[in-house]
Amino acid sequence: MSKSLQNHKILAISSGGGHLTEMMHSFNDIGIYKDNIIFVVPKTQYTKETLKDTKHYFIIDPHISKIKYLINAMWALFLYIKIRPTVLISTGAGIAIPMILIAKKFGCKIIFIETGARVTTPSKTGTFAYKYSDLFIVQYEPLLKFFPSAKLGTLL
User: Domains along the chain?
Assistant: First the structure.
């Protein structure tokens, strides 16, 4: 998998904290380095520090605000057109939903990794992203009953 991803422009979108950390560990494990990826995350002290040596953009975290979702969607469209990725990878959370829809509309391949925090029940973002993902990965077997065509494991 890593060799095939090396030949693509990868956009990685996630919320900060555990979602971002989990995604970065997956990339390190398979040998995809920060130079091959453009990150899109909310602006927090953690994300500013974590991504200081990477290509990245900050996007608004809509949480549950409809107005912020609209702003997020407009910014996601702008960033997608600017970056023009061939692969979008996300670990969630809701911040990624507009970008997933935009990327799918433009024919981008979508890889979604259900967060490792979900062992027996699916996340809302995972449930949404499953319909649009070209590759959907769960990290625990009990989740396969919710996502029958998912792959069990990590990006490895």
Answer: 2-152 (3.40.50.2000)
pLDDT in tens, 61-88: 888 889 998 999 999 999 999 999 999 9
Say if residues 99 and 75 touch (Cβ distance below 8 Å). Answer: no
> What residues contact 82, with CB distance under 8 A and at least 6 apart?
none
Buried b (16+ CB within 10 A) or exposed e, 89-119: bbbbbbbbbbbbbbbbeeebbbbbbbbbebe
| Residue that is written with structure tokens 């407009």 in the block | 74
Question: Which residues are bridge partners to 88 per DSSP?
Answer: 11, 110
- One DSSP character per residue, 133-149 reads -SEEEESSGGGGGTSTT
E strands within the chain?
A: 10-14, 37-41, 55-58, 87-92, 109-113, 135-138, 151-152
What single letter denotes the amino acid at residue 82? Answer: K
